[in-house]
Write a structure and sequence with these properties.
heterodimer, A: about 110 residues, four-stranded antiparallel beta sheet, globular, B: mainly beta, five-stranded antiparallel beta sheet, about 0% helix
Chain lengths: ~110, ~110
């Protein structure tokens, strides 16, 4: 069964550094999403992407965040200058219809 | 946007017991998903269930869309069922999912 994959599984970075989180959505899916989960809290929406542009974004998704689909398979989330509060699990999801399928997540720790 | 509330927040069971988890949502939905977050943090799709009842092994789910709630049943629980169970609903259509705060389940041997 096709799955959403994410790399890396874990990343540790210094405050102020840029990080890029990578996702490979399911191949025939058209809608792509990033969510995050701060430790012990609920999963929160960041951004959705369709037809090569952002379709929705939350208040969390400020100017330090950007998303890109650089080729036909990858979907990336860039955090330009990481802050301590960016430490969280980041989930990528994709969908073809109403059902969203989530990747295993990237656990980001900002020191 | 839509509000999603889950109950109970925590649940402790003995292995073999049955349980019911509840998800209430504030608006009409055309999608409702249940997830299990395992101890490694992975979100596992359990059900996509905008209405009606579905079963998958020891798990089943029922959504009553007109009354804006969904139930997840776990029968004959096992220690591997431990983790956090989330329900999530979209604000509209193919939109983003709003998650509840989850039910943390601990099944002890």
């Amino acid at each position: 069964e096709p799955e959403v994959t994410q790399t890396p599984s874990h990343q540790v970075t210094q405050m102020g550094q840029e990080v890029i989180l990578r996702c490979v959505p399911i191949s025939n899916h058209l809608y792509f999403y990033w969510y995050r989960q701060i430790l012990g809290q609920k999963v929160e929406f960041l951004v959705s992407f369709y037809n090569n542009e952002i379709s929705e974004k939350s208040e969390i998704f400020d100017d330090q965040f950007s998303v890109e689909r650089p080729d036909g398979s990858n979907f990336t989330l860039k955090i330009r200058s990481t802050k301590l509060e960016d430490s969280a699990m980041y989930f990528c999801a994709s969908s073809r219809d109403e059902t969203q399928y989530f990747g295993p997540g990237t656990r980001l720790l900002v020191l | 946007g839509i509000q999603v509330e889950q109950s109970p927040p925590d649940l402790i069971l003995q292995e073999g017991a049955n349980s019911t988890l509840r998800c209430n949502f504030s608006d009409s939905v055309n999608n409702l998903q249940w997830f299990h977050q395992n101890p490694w943090g992975q979100l596992i799709n359990l059900f996509y269930i905008p209405s009606g009842t579905k079963q998958n092994g020891r798990l089943s789910a029922t959504t009553v869309a007109t009354e804006r709630y969904s139930l997840l049943y776990i029968s004959s629980s096992q220690t591997t069922d431990s983790g956090v169970y989330f329900c999530a609903a979209p604000n509209s259509g193919y939109s983003t999912l709003t998650f509840g705060k989850g039910t943390m389940l601990l099944v002890s041997p």
